[in-house]
Amino acid sequence: MTTISETSTPATTDSQTSAPTSAAPAQRRSYLPAKSTDRRPVTDPEATLREQLDDQRYLDMRTDMGLQYVDGLRIPSYGDMSVPGYRMVPVNVAREYGLAGLTEGEDPLEEIEIDEPTTEPVGAVDGNSVPTFVEGIRGQHLFDILNATLLAQLAANAKFDREQDPINWTRFYGKVLENVGFVVPEFSFFGLRSKDARFSMDQAVLKVIAAILTPTQVELAKASFDALQSLRSDDRRLQIFRRNSSDNRSGNFQISSVGESSAGIVSLKLNAFFFKTDEQVTDVLWFKFRSASTTLQATRTTLVLNDQVYDRLRQSILDKLGNRGLNFIGGLELSDV
Questions:
Q1: What DSSP character marks residue 123?
Q2: Which residues lie in Basic and acidic residues bias regions (predicted)?
């Protein structure tokens, strides 16, 4: 059993050596730019959402600002493969090279009804993220989360090097989500350390996510790991996650859980992980990292979706993404939990 403990080591903001840093006082950092630091911190996302929903002028203002923001947002173009972290697996290329995972019926997302609640949990690969969706989330909300977080990933990729500057990348990722209708608390970054000579990343992840996920959600995350690991090595979904979660000796990936309350409030429990090591990493979740030469950091928080704002931005977001959703997103069949 891998032993993972959280440390107060502050997360790095730029490229540093892979050796673990010495302990230092914990630092709380906001992803917001300096000019916005007077914004009231979000301590209760659902309470903040209720305040927003009660203010029609605020909703109209957020919508107008969101439309302008999405219109001016830069994401990598299809030919811009030099952008760090922009590693899509186009469907047409996947078909040309015979990658698995494209046969009709293999992708559970194909069965999701937009206007109906899901009847069973669903997993997905979404660029560098592996989200799971609990049973009962409305189909439209499921796809809204996939598309919004993909947009945030791509925009952050165009702004910062995902592997070498993951902290600023994550801050900007949160800024994008806030601008398209999410209530986003500040991100607090912390270090992770193992007492064992080597540790498996999936065990470190489970240690972190258990702090904000329910036991059922943790089991769904485990099921998504199993589903991903069971795919053929040439499966398009596995290739998407491999290509977007790590790059040789560094990486940046997310494991999240999405649910919907009886009141229709959609929550995204986000867990993000960044690492640097001195070995070439293959499959990040199951790679045996050497503790002495690996720096591992994380952040976790809960976001909620203001769907009254997002409803009015949805088409602009889809237009901005084009068919990138087809190239970065794939569903995972989860075993019974």
A1: E
A2: 36-48
